[in-house]
């Protein structure tokens, strides 16, 4: 049974949403600073990627750990109430993400997923810059897939100065 009032739901969604808009802007700015030009919200492609780089046949998604259900991530915490509602909702999002990914691969697009936790919290600036460096390296490679996640990354590694 869903006991969330539309008002409560709107509030929770707005709160999570506004938090999640920042990371994609940070990644876009960092890529732009490295000289990359891209399309945003590229509607032509499945999943409407946050960043599309047609020249590299590559797209980048910046995923909020909550909305996209980042498995095992310490930043993924369900709200205290109405957990069934949120679990069902996030499951649908994950399924949609998976479908988009399969679809993009079938169309020969390369896909990078940056999880919010990789560019979140302390040393944000450095983390964003390091993520952009990884994306840049990946764009120039032949690899079809790149995932940048914060939770399974050695913190010491993250704290190293960018060279
Ligand atoms: Zn995460």
How would you describe this protein?
Helix 1 (6-33) packs across helix 3 (124-140). The chain has helices spanning 6-33, 83-106, 124-140, 155-158, and strands at 39-40, 51-53, 58-63, 110-115, 145-148. With 163 residues, the protein is an alpha/beta fold. The chain contains four helices and five strands, in the order αβββαβαβα. The termini are far apart. Residues 153-163 have low confidence and may be disordered. It has a single domain (6-158), classed as VSR Endonuclease (Endonuclease, Chain A). Helix 2 (83-106) links the parallel strand 3 and strand 4 (110-115). It is globular, with a radius of gyration of 16 Å. The protein has a five-stranded mixed beta sheet, with helices on both faces. The longest helix is centred in the first third of the chain and has 28 residues, at 6-33. Zinc ion (ZN) is lined by residues 65, 70, 73, 75, 115-117, 150-151.
């Amino acid at each position: 049974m869903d006991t969330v009032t539309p008002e409560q739901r709107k509030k929770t969604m707005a709160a999570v949403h506004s938090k999640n808009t920042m990371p994609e802007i940070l990644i876009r700015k960092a890529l732009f600073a490295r000289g990359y030009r891209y399309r945003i919200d590229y509607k032509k492609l499945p999943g409407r990627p946050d960043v599309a780089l047609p020249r590299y046949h590559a797209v980048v998604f910046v995923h909020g750990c909550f909305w996209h259900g980042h498995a095992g991530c310490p930043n993924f915490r369900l709200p205290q109430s109405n957990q069934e509602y949120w679990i069902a909702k996030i499951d649908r999002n994950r399924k949609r993400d998976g479908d988009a990914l399969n679809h993009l691969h079938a169309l020969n697009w390369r896909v990078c997923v940056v999880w919010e936790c990789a560019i979140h919290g302390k040393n944000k600036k450095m983390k964003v810059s390091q993520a952009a460096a990884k994306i840049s390296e990946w764009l120039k490679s032949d690899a079809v897939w790149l995932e940048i996640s914060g939770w399974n990354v050695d913190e010491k590694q993250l704290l190293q100065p960018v060279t």
